[in-house]
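Checked the freezer inventory, then went back to the computational side. Two predictions to log before the end of the day. The first one is the construct we discussed on Monday; recording sequence and tokens without edits.
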Amino acid sequence: MGQMENLPRNVAALIYKKQYWRTPAFDKVAQIEPILAEELFDTGVNMGTSTAIGLLQRAHYVRLAEARPAQEAFLYG
């Protein structure tokens, strides 16, 4: 591969759009929760899309456990 400085901006944008927006389906999330989708995109770029999705799932399970304390045991596997 060549130097990143030689990569045209529009090509970089296409890579980001495909790899960090469409492939993990954050574009579909954006249709319902645009701010959440932006956070997922940012986290996906910086930490990987799998990590972004995992953090969202974890937050969801924590919220469920807070609403129903009997579900807390499922947070730990």
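The second is the one RB wanted added to the comparison set:
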Amino acid sequence: MSSSNKGMKSRYLYKVFSGSIGLAVGALMSVVVPRALGPQSYGDFGFLRSTFQSVLDFMNLGSTGAFFNYNSRHEESWRVVKLYFVFLVLLFSTVLFGIQVLHWCGLLSSVLPHQELRFVYLGFFFVFSDFLITISSGFADAKRLTKNFELMRLGAKITVLFGISSCYLLKQLSLTTYFMLLTAFNCGLIAFAWRRFLRSTSLAMFPVTMDFVREVKGFFWRFCSPLATLLFISSAFSFIDRWLLQRVYGSSEQGFYTLGFQVSTVCFLFTASMTPLFVKEMTEAHHLKDLEKMKSLVLKYIPLFYLIACVLSVFVSFQSSFIVDLVGGERFRGAVIPLAIIGVYPIYQTYGQLSGSIFMATDRTKTYRNIALASLVFSLPLSYFLLAPRTYFGLNLGAVGLALKLVLLNAVIVNVQLWYNCRFLGLAYRRHLLQQFTILGAVCLMFGAAKLSVSLIPFANIFSNSLAAKGANVFLTALVFFPMTLFFALKTELIPRNTLSFFRGR
């Protein structure tokens, strides 16, 4: 195996290790936080986080992707780091000033319904610190510092879990303390990470000239300008979806949707770990005009991580009732159906992340933009139809409607992206389309078989109404289901054998 692939394997295994711990930490936090906050406060948390993520997605104009791309292509890129730091300071100041202007003008309650000013500020500080974590992680991947960063992230995750658990046991975990804890630990991780990145470097050694500014400006403009329109419209539509849910149904319904989305995000951690490394390898292969390596990356890794996403998503969707009882209790019963639907989302999110990254790595951002813009034509009408009250010709489905819209629209977008990428790389789209149905269908059948097997165990259904007994049933199902999927994939070559060379080192 080439040194490049060995490096990718090593960095990815660190990602998987950190992601595995993150999965456990996320699962434990998902049990603690919703129970402590309740549907209303948890809904406020989800709404504010989603809102400011949309704001930052729009205002950074895709520059995070350009920043990662530039650092992947250039070994010495500290001058870009200095310029990007200035941009981040301006971005932070602009949003902060915008919040204050809305408050002065009395418009904040219309833009962010049912939100107190202190929660708005705390929500923004948390989301911005999370945004900086994403940038730092991308920089670490670009500079092959993944191992160091993931170890630091692992320490931060364990520490934040300890802090939140302590507050919960002391009955001090409120929305205020939750925001403050997350922000504080994010800031600590950022400080330690950049201290490590700059350990043997002084930024003063890399002066920024006007010629360099013009060069970088040209690169960022070429990368970002095709995405500017898309980011504006998609961010606006994303905000409108959550705003409509908040305005019409209130914070509790927002909490049901947030719970489902949060659990699906935990499922996505494994495959999300792959994306930055996959993008780097694709970027380098494209830069070298190595089409065969690009094809190899797609054929090896996308089906494998699609399988992982299917296994986790199917398990979560079919066990949504137990997960809601465990995580939120009786107050969150309204989240069962939204979670069952959103549980499928990581399947298409995986394909979307990896397929979308191919567009970024191959500088086809205009095509990526046009596909997304075309899909947005259906986004707002679909949201209105699913969320609006019946008196306004809608289905009045609330969190269930928004979950349906999320999954259906993304399934269509992902397959359109995949078709364009297959055509670009000279691959057969039909194979990948059939692979989606084959893998998902096989996983569903295996879950059914596992569930049936457990139901035949005499003691498995005793005291079936107790949470502990339900948990034991779910645990036994997992013990049968997960090994079954691995065995089936290996023996039937549902995933080609050469995919596994990534882990075997050949």
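For RB: The chain has two domains: 3-427, 430-506. The CA atoms of residues 394 and 410 lie 21 Å apart. Let me know if you want it refolded.
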